[in-house]
């Protein structure tokens, strides 16, 4: 009986999509257009920040997705009004967390663009690895290393995706997870040349293997620590630099 009560308490405390909307950081997955296209938005309510992932141009290849950063203008009665930075100006949208809809206000003359309302689903914050990906990355891990300034590695064994971010520069390199055990995760990172990288949980280190005969690329070991998974909100922070 105690075990059942304990399980019930855990299930009650676990976050649900509806509760995520009340939290400070969450994402929405919306669909609209003809033919229908998916697009996403990640909100940091406390910071009044938004990162919007545009619908793909090509549905088969998922080509054409970009990110737009913006700010939350108001939040009342479950409605979040926000503005996105687009050239040559801005565009305003409204997410209704009660109806789970995204509204694109129309122009004064409906002949040119009527008001559009698209259905949405509230999800946990989208991983930074999820950019350009239809299916969400559910269990990524991120580590922060102090190596000529802060750098980050984010990896996910299930999708085999990996990303390296170089601190204030905001420069990213893609890679893949080639092996994942209980302690070590091995990556193949696409730096200027491919490099083998190993994250050790027990030692809290990232090892970047050297390249034989290349003195400029020696074997490097740096101390790191696991941090909260990096989310799409990092694209907003990059735009502020």
Tags for this entry?
8-stranded antiparallel beta barrel, 8-stranded antiparallel β-barrel, 241 residues, disordered N terminus
Overview of the structural elements:
With 241 residues, the chain is mainly β. The chain is built from three helices and 16 strands. β13 (184-190) and β14 form a beta hairpin. Mean pLDDT is 85; it is low at 1-22.
Which SSEs are present, and which pair or pack?
Blueprint: H1 2-13, H2 17-20, E1 25-32, E2 37-44, E3 49-53, E4 67-76, E5 79-85, E6 90-96, E7 101-104, E8 116-123, E9 141-146, E10 150-156, E11 161-166, E12 171-180, E13 184-190, E14 194-200, E15 205-208, E16 220-227, H3 234-239
Antiparallel strand pairs: 1-2, 1-8, 2-3, 3-4, 4-5, 5-6, 6-7, 7-8, 9-10, 9-16, 10-11, 11-12, 12-13, 13-14, 14-15, 15-16
Describe this structure in a few short sentences.
The chain is mainly beta and 241 residues long.
- Supply the helix-strand structural class: mainly beta
- Specify the overall morphology: elongated
Strand order of the largest sheet: 1-2-3-4-5-6-7-8
The run of helices and strands is: HHEEEEEEEEEEEEEEEEH
């Amino acid at each position: 009986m105690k075990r059942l009560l304990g399980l019930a308490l855990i299930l009650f405390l676990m976050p649900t999509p509806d509760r995520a909307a009340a939290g400070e950081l969450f994402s929405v997955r919306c669909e609209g257009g003809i033919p229908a296209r998916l697009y996403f938005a990640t909100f940091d309510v406390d910071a009044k920040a938004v990162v919007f992932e545009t619908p793909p141009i090509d549905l088969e290849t998922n080509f054409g997705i970009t990110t737009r950063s913006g700010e939350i203008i108001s939040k009342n009665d479950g409605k979040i009004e926000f503005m996105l930075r687009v050239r040559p100006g801005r565009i305003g949208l409204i997410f209704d967390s009660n109806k789970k809809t995204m509204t694109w206000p129309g122009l004064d003359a409906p002949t040119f663009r009527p008001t559009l309302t698209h259905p949405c689903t509230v999800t946990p914050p989208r991983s930074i690895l999820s950019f350009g990906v239809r299916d969400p990355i559910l269990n990524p891990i991120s580590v922060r290393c102090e190596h000529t300034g802060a750098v980050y590695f984010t990896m996910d064994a299930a999708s085999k995706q990996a990303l390296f971010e170089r601190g204030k520069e905001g420069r990213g390199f893609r890679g893949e997870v080639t092996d994942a055990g209980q302690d070590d995760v091995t990556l193949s990172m696409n730096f200027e040349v491919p490099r083998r990288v190993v994250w050790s949980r027990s030692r809290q280190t990232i090892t970047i293997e050297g390249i034989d005969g290349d003195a400029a690329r020696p074997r490097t070991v740096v101390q790191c620590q696991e941090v909260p998974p990096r989310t799409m909100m990092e694209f907003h922070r990059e735009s502020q630099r």
